[in-house]
Amino acid sequence: KYKRQYFMPPVTCMKWAEKEYVDKAPVWCSVDLRDGNQALVIPMNLEQKVEFFKLLVDIGFKEIEVGFPAASETEYTFLRKLIEEDLIPDDVTVQVLTQAREHIIKKTFDAVKGAKNVIVHVYNSTSVSQREQVFKKSKEEILQIAVEGAKLLKQLTEEAGENYRFEYSPESFTGTEPEYALEVCNAVLDIWQPTADRKPIINLPVTVEHSMPHVYASQVEYICENLKYRENVIVSLHPHNDRGCGVADSEMGLLAGADRIEGTLFGNGERTGNVDIITLALNMYSQGVEPNLDFTDMSAICEKYEEFTGMKISERSPYCGALVFAAFSGSHQDAIAKGMHWLDEKKPEHWTVPYLPIDPKDVGRNYDADVIRINSQSGKGGVGYILETKYGLNLPAKMREAMGYTAKAVSDHTQKELLPDQIFELFKKTFENVT
Ligand code: KIV
Ligand code: ZN
After folding, report:
1. Are residues 221 and 15 in contact, defined by beta-carbon separation less than 8 angstroms?
2. Ligand index nearest the alpha carbon of residue 171
3. Closest by alpha carbon to 26, among 212, 275, 294, 250?
4. Which of 85, 100, 287, 363 could be a cystine partner for 298, CB 3.0 to 4.6 Å?
5. Which atom of ligand 1 is nearest to the CA of 173?
6. ipTM value of the model?
7. pLDDT category, 16, cuts 50, 70, 90?
8. Is any atom of ligand 1 closer than 6 Å to the C-beta of 99?
């Protein structure tokens, strides 16, 4: 019955629409331990958080939001443990979230004392709904909250040292008039006075996604084009996924000029989640852009993620789900088998195999177990492929055809998938009298 409000910027140039793809990976920031964790039915305990942190480091994240230490005892203790037990590698920056309120900011600085590299991420909500309904404050009053927070951060950072950087988020950015969001961000930057050697981050959250990706891209472009000190500021995106478009928001936001992405593994996070960094990174990988994140052992990542979070990864989750490279249908299997031969023979410049978006081997998956899967939908191509690649049996066309029909009939009758060893047994039984 109600239409959700969103805001197009006053001027749109849509330069992003002229670009084909991103030319380099953004700076990645994992918010798994904060936004992801706060949305779990049972948030992670201390040990799980430490193990998850190590997993993120192993994948290659250089910026990790570790929590909201002033808001929860576990998050405070977790951060102290990371620092005191020297678990943060020198090239990794920990990010801590705080509201723009004096006592919370001060407690956050206490929590993070002694860390080697820190981003203090301060936010306040700027949207029309939040201003009117939640805070009952004017635009000027909301702007003042941001400015006071920015001042305190600057003051405490000057006392704390060189290894601190700042981030500001106008929370609910996409529900905020773009001109006003720009005014608030610029006022914050006026306090911080960005320099090339210490660039602050302006983060533009899609706190709740309620418009199409091109609207967000236009908002991002408007901010990027009009932000003061732009060359000394890192523009970051933080898309949530309420309309299922978090990845599209991120890709188009990067085309629109952003430099950095905050997201999570498998898109964990509030409600429908934060943007899934795995999908984003591997989308880039499939276009030849090195993501600088290591997903070569995806099964191990999936296992650990499920163990720590208690979440289940969908079998259709891009690049990671159990079935995302599987081909049961005979015609798909035939095309894949032919594509693999083509690849071996011609060695083309691009990945050209039909029905496979990337080489499954690149994420640690294999052809026998994960790609060519045999059931009643399958045909001679798939069965032939398994017998050839796993058992070295290059069958003549007629035998392959017969094996295809036999396997299909057995699977149809038993209503079960046939595993490679079962196919080999079936082959032996079918042709036991043939010499
Ligand atoms: O989604 C959001 O707006 C947030 C902010 C705190 C950055 O998580
Ligand atoms: Zn968020």
Report:
1. yes
2. 1
3. 250
4. 363
5. 3
6. 0.99
7. confident
8. no
CA distance 410 to 416: 8
Q: Which atom of ligand 1 is nearest to the CA of 203?
A: 7
Place of tokens 């106008």: 170
Cα distance between residue 35 and residue 279, in whole Å: 18
For residue 373, give the amino acid letter.
R
**Ligand 1 pocket member 171 (CB < 6 A):** yes
- What percent of the chain has pLDDT above 70? 100
The structure tokens listed for 287 are 């276009």
Q: Is the CB of 173 under 6 A from ligand 1?
A: no
Residue pair 153/166 in contact (Cβ under 8 Å)? The answer is yes
Known binder of ligand: residue 35? Answer: yes
* Residue tagged 């042709």 (tokens): 431
Q: How many CB atoms lie within 10 A of CB 160?
A: 17
Cα(315)–Cα(318) distance, integer angstroms:
9
Amino acid sitting at position 108: T
Ligand 1 pocket residue status of 35, Cβ below 6 Å: yes
Q: Is 210 within any annotated ligand binding site? A: no
Using the structure block, give the residue that is written with the tokens 């032939």.
384
- Reported as a single tens digit per residue, the pLDDT across 233-268 is 999 999 999 999 999 999 999 999 999 999 999 999
Mutate which of 29, 38, 97 for ligand 1? The one with the most ligand atoms within 8 Å of its CB, which is: 97
Q: Which residues contact 189 (CB under 8 A, 6 or more apart)?
A: 200, 202, 227, 228, 229, 233
DSSP string, 141-152: HHHHHHHHHHHH
Q: Is 186 marked within a binding site?
A: no
- Answer whether 168 contacts ligand 1 (Cβ < 6 A): no
